[in-house]
Amino acid sequence: GVMEAVELRVGFGGAGRMAGGLARGLLRAGKVPASSILASAPSDKNLDAWRESGCRTTHCNLEVLQESTLVFLATKPHVLPGVLQEIRPAVGPHHVVVSLVAGVTLQTLQRLLPAGTKVLRLMPNLPCVVQAGAMVFARGSGAGDGEAALLKSLLSSCGLCEEVPESYINIHTGLSGSGVAYVYLFAEALAEGAVKMGMPGGLASRIAAQTLLGAAKMMLETGEHPAKLRGDVCTPGGTTIHALHQLEKGALRATVMNAVEAATNRACDMAED
Amino acid sequence: SSPAPELPTVSGLRKMGVNFTVSNKDTVKSSDVLFLAVKPPIIPFILEEVGPDIEARHIVVSCAAGVTISSIEKKLSAFCPTPKVIRCMTNTPVIVREGATVYATGTHADVEDGKLLEQLMASVGFCTEVEEDLIDAVTGLSGSGPAYAFTALDALADGGVKMGLPRRLAVRLGAQALLGAAKMLLESEQHPGQLKDNVCSPGGATIHALHFLESGGFRSLLINAVEASCIRTRELQHLADQEKISPAAIKKTLLDKVKLESPSLSVASASKVSLFTNKS
């Protein structure tokens, strides 16, 4: 069944930005007490921030397996095989292993861990740090409904969390993992346009961000099609439709589709490396 | 009526049983609703010609692109104190009773007059009243719209032929696809964006094709087209207001013919063929 949050001991193998973001989200939402979180990393550099939050830290990956039931693997891709070999002896049937490592398939993970291990693969995005992330996960053959429900329940504290077939994970990278960067680019350009028209940069930047936030919130809360929401903003002959025409002339839609496609394809290529 | 009875459109009308005359004046005298279906630069001349015969009962309907109600009222007021003028913009698919028509009523046209026109035009498609200042935009969208559609259909058929379809079948299927899509949209509450999504299965053929359309700036091309047609209509209106007509707009042969029949008139022929010549 689903583990009680109180009994849950969460471990992180690797303590980089993504792991930190997830941990911070869990802590902020009060899902797991800091004392139940243990993170390992080769150096102290990343671990200081964890200790400041009240989490426990170590340099030993094995200790993470021994102390935790739910283990997030968040190393760099080339480091992971070595880490898996290292922790394999300590992995048991009570463990739930969740890999955040880009490009490493469930097949590979299951091959390098004991048969029947409950393995899941998670692709988050950076805004998990502020509890507004978009995450997808896929389950391996050893993971059941209970593990999926646990993960979904925990991670919903960090944003949107959906179970998907593994084949969607690279698409999620192209759409939302990398997608965050597209939004930053767009926000920067919006602000620059405003600066050109005479607004100070700091103010323009804050307004640009709030505009994106507000539009996204309306999409999520109304559930309406974005084309309809766009139409609602366009008064006949008004400012908005004039501006949208410029965006269409620049083939913005196709360019964005190209970006998602390129990132997805790159994720697929990197996975095969 | 038309001073050029040899026009192929004239025999078409006669076959339908429509009464025909070479005299514009006769047409006016025996009509209550008068459609002026001449090229826009000719409107001022035809108004001068038929002005004296316009009576209070007449409803003068102009389909000429870019010709304002006020310009027509101004011309007619020399002859009739309160001329009833309605301006309309329609399109060629009235031929198959799927036209798109808008109209704006002039100063002296009553609500019933507008409703009468609306009834007439609704029998050949969609018809609604609008403010006059929107008519140029309507011209750009649905006035010229069928031409955009024909162009698209020609190209779609080419695509079909390229991929192996016989031409006739390709044309038939392309037209049916657009007809069906338009019908779905008109009968649906949904946004066209949503209807589009409904056709696009993930990773499928359609979304791949749409990406090509977006890359080519398909949407902006259509926006550009509507804008260009609307702007050109306004330019033509401006030219008409200044009554600057290029001599090329008036065929010399017709000019001479009219001069023979009405020596007092300086120029212009007029054909009141409303259904078959609708070029603007």
TrEMBL record, chain A:
- For the ligand (NADP(+)), the binding residues are A74, T75, K76, P77
Recorded hits in Gene3D superfamilies, A to Z, give: NAD(P)-binding Rossmann-like Domain (3.40.50.720), ProC C-terminal domain-like (1.10.3730.10)
**Is Amino-acid biosynthesis found in the keyword set?**
yes
Q: In the Enzyme Commission scheme, what number(s) does this protein have?
A: 1.5.1.2
Print the keywords alphabetically: Amino-acid biosynthesis, Cytoplasm, NADP, Oxidoreductase, Proline biosynthesis
MF terms in GO = pyrroline-5-carboxylate reductase activity
This protein's pathway reads: Amino-acid biosynthesis; L-proline biosynthesis; L-proline from L-glutamate 5-semialdehyde: step 1/1
Q: What residue stretches are annotated with the Pyrroline-5-carboxylate reductase catalytic N-terminal domain?
A: 9-103
Protein name according to UniProt: Pyrroline-5-carboxylate reductase
Q: Where does NADPH bind?
A: N61
SUPFAM superfamilies, alphabetized: 6-phosphogluconate dehydrogenase C-terminal domain-like, NAD(P)-binding Rossmann-fold domains
- Could you mention a single GO BP entry for this protein? L-proline biosynthetic process
**Keyword Hydrolase on this protein?**
no
The subcellular location is: Cytoplasm
Q: What does this protein do?
A: Oxidoreductase that catalyzes the last step in proline biosynthesis, which corresponds to the reduction of pyrroline-5-carboxylate (P5C) to L-proline using NAD(P)H. Proline is synthesized from either glutamate or ornithine; both are converted to P5C, and then to proline via pyrroline-5-carboxylate reductases (PYCRs). PYCR3 is exclusively linked to the biosynthesis of proline from ornithine.
**Which of the seven top EC classes does this enzyme belong to?**
oxidoreductase
- UniProt subunit comment: Homodecamer; composed of 5 homodimers.
* Pfam families, alphabetized: F420_oxidored (PF03807), P5CR_dimer (PF14748)
Q: Where is the Pyrroline-5-carboxylate reductase dimerisation domain?
A: 166-268
- List the record's Gene Ontology CC terms alphabetically: cytoplasm
Protein family (similarity comment): Belongs to the pyrroline-5-carboxylate reductase family.
Catalysed reaction per UniProt?
Answer: L-proline + NAD(+) = (S)-1-pyrroline-5-carboxylate + NADH + 2 H(+); L-proline + NADP(+) = (S)-1-pyrroline-5-carboxylate + NADPH + 2 H(+)
The organism encoding this protein is Nipponia nippon
NCBIfam families for the chain: proC (TIGR00112)
- Extract the InterPro entries matched here: 6-PGluconate_DH-like_C_sf, NAD(P)-bd_dom_sf, P5C_Rdtase_cat_N, P5CR-like_CS, P5CR_dimer, Pyrroline-COOH_reductase
TrEMBL record, chain B:
Q: So what does this thing catalyse?
A: L-proline + NADP(+) = (S)-1-pyrroline-5-carboxylate + NADPH + 2 H(+); L-proline + NAD(+) = (S)-1-pyrroline-5-carboxylate + NADH + 2 H(+)
- Could you mention a single GO BP entry for this protein? cellular response to oxidative stress
Instruction: Indicate whether Transmembrane appears among the record's keywords.
Output: no
Q: What class of enzyme is it?
A: oxidoreductase
Provide the alphabetized UniProt keywords: Acetylation, Amino-acid biosynthesis, Mitochondrion, NADP, Oxidoreductase, Phosphoprotein, Proline biosynthesis
Q: Which SUPFAM superfamilies is this protein grouped with?
A: 6-phosphogluconate dehydrogenase C-terminal domain-like (SSF48179), NAD(P)-binding Rossmann-fold domains (SSF51735)
The UniProt entry's coiled-coil ranges are none
Q: Quote the pathway field.
A: Amino-acid biosynthesis; L-proline biosynthesis; L-proline from L-glutamate 5-semialdehyde: step 1/1
Can you say where in the cell this protein is located? Mitochondrion
The membrane-spanning stretches of this chain are none
Q: Which InterPro entries match?
A: 6-PGluconate_DH-like_C_sf (IPR008927), NAD(P)-bd_dom_sf (IPR036291), P5C_Rdtase_cat_N (IPR028939), P5CR-like_CS (IPR053790), P5CR_dimer (IPR029036), Pyrroline-COOH_reductase (IPR000304)
User: Is the keyword Iron assigned to this protein?
Assistant: no
Show where the Pyrroline-5-carboxylate reductase catalytic N-terminal domain sits. 14-66
Any one Gene Ontology MF annotation carried by this entry is: pyrroline-5-carboxylate reductase activity
Which residues hold NADPH?
N24
Q: Per the similarity annotation, which family is this?
A: Belongs to the pyrroline-5-carboxylate reductase family.
According to UniProt, the name of this protein is Pyrroline-5-carboxylate reductase
